[in-house]
Amino acid sequence: MNVKQTLDTKGLSCPMPIVKTKKAMDGLASGDILEVLATDKGAVNDLSAWSKSSGHKLLDHKEEEGVFKFWIKKG
Amino acid sequence: MVKALSAKEVAKRAVEGKMFILDVRNESDFKDWKIEGKGIESINRPYFDLIEGVEDVLEHLPKKEVLVVCAKEGSSVMVAEMLDEAGIKDVYYLEGGMNAWSEYLLPVKIGDLKDGGSIYQFNRIGKGCLSYLVESNGEAAIIDSARAIGAYEDFAKEKNIEIKHMIDTHLHTDHISGGRRLAEKTNATYWLPPKDAEEVTFSYEALEEGKDITIGNTKIEIQPLYTPGHTIGSTSMIVDGQYLLSGDILFVDSIGRPDLAGKAEDWVSDLRDSLYNKYTSLSKDLVVLPAHFGKISELDEKGAVQAPLGELFEKNEGLKIESDDEFRKAVTENLPPQPNAYQEIRQTNMGKIDPTSDEQREMEIGPNRCAITE
């Protein structure tokens, strides 16, 4: 996957992962892919719901040793 | 200035007051489970749709007294501050979020016992779980304890009573029992029906018919009555000849579901026999005190859930099904979804797994879903 930028929100709790993701997304161009790292469990549901409601596309996500990774394509 | 509101305060308002709630969790979490109560009105708007500003939601909110709620607290503080800046008066956030709401226990006195002593219901309003404390002459038994045992410990300390018995009417599938842990802490005896305890990894006292449990010198008897069906071990308790603690067999508005331990078809006839033969032979004056409620409308003005057995035979649809076949269908088909993480919860209650307290909290999220209807 051609990741344009990686955002590390590990250790941050809700709402910060999404607030930071949103900010990072604002600086990208349509079609760019943002990788987000998070440790907050709530981020899984919230990032997918947020992507949908804000017109971005959550391409994939997975968990590796307690760290959630998300790849979101800017809409 | 936004203010924190504790789960205790919210419970009070849910039972007897008024509160407008802006729930900022995502839509699916809100649909699944939310704060309910006679005095509660709520709307949902996820916090991530409000990061840019709250203007769009203002028209749907009252001008004063709004409680913002989220899962853990963080997002509700953010949104509450934005509402405050936008001019709404008295904006609160729920301290500890839905986690705290799920764990809060509201103690309500149900009544006095004949030879002194009394019985209390601890209503876990956020999850619909009901537990009981029977006390007499400085001794107490706790039945179907919640995981958060602090409320019972505080209560016992305040009333200067010693917890002697921790009893579970069955192996729970919707919440993690605090029975074993509190028994260890207080040197109390932990009772469990042996047929539900075949795979447990710890020692316990067998809760069986014929083994009366006595509290205090005044001999308040707790008499077990074997009523299988929700689980194969499910046991009801009759306290002081007045109260029927029906566990997850009979609720005020519904009846227990037989499928959560994976044996619905096998246990249908047990459930039918418990409700339609064993319960019908009991005094109709017994006050039924179940281990759950399903709808917030089951709470009375004090926040208690109770009803005379005779009344339930007239009003509870689950007790009025005439044919065996119809009954089998009612308790095995079109059941609500299972409680969250119910398999893991059973394993935890058997002592087979030992999740961290954060994991346990996570496992218990959502409503109890132990009845055949929602």
The beta-strand count of chain A equals 4
- Treating each run of at least 4 consecutive H or I residues as one helix, how many helices of chain B? 12
Q: What would CATH call the homologous superfamily of the largest domain in chain B?
A: Ribonuclease Z/Hydroxyacylglutathione hydrolase-like
SSE sequence of chain A, one letter per element: EHEHEE
Shape of chain A: globular
> What spatial order of strands do you see in the largest sheet of chain A?
1-2-4-3
CATH topology of the largest domain in chain B: Metallo-beta-lactamase, Chain A
CATH superfamily of chain A: TusA-like domain
Largest interface: A-B, 15 and 16 residues
Contiguous low-pLDDT stretches of chain B (5 residues minimum) are none
Average pLDDT of chain B, rounded to a whole number, is: 95
Average pLDDT score of chain A: 94
**Shape assignment of chain B:** globular
Largest sheet of chain A, in brief, is:
4 strands, mixed
Overall number of structural domains of chain B = 2
Strand-pairing-aware structural class of chain B: alpha/beta
- Largest β-sheet summary of chain B: 7 strands, mixed
Structural class of chain A: alpha+beta
Give an account of the 3D structure.
The complex is a heterodimer of chains A (75) and B (374). The radius of gyration of chain A is 11 Å and the shape is globular. Chain A has helices at 16-26, 42-53; strands spanning 3-9, 33-38, 57-64, 67-73. Chain A has one domain (3-73): Translation Initiation Factor IF3. With 75 residues, chain A is an alpha+beta fold. Chain B has helices at 7-16, 27-32, 55-58, 74-85, 97-103, 150-158, 179-186, 264-278, 309-315, 324-332, 342-349, 357-363, and strands spanning 3-5, 19-23, 40-44, 64-69, 89-94, 106-112, 118-124, 129-136, 139-143, 162-167, 189-192, 205-206, 213-215, 220-226, 235-239, 243-247, 287-290, 307-308. Chain B folds into two domains: 3-101, Oxidized Rhodanese, domain 1, CATH 3.40.250.10; 105-363, Metallo-beta-lactamase, Chain A (4-Layer Sandwich). Chain B is globular, with a radius of gyration of 21 Å. The mean pLDDT of chain B is 95. In chain B, 50% of the residues are buried. Chains A and B meet through α1 and α2 of A and α2 and α4 of B.
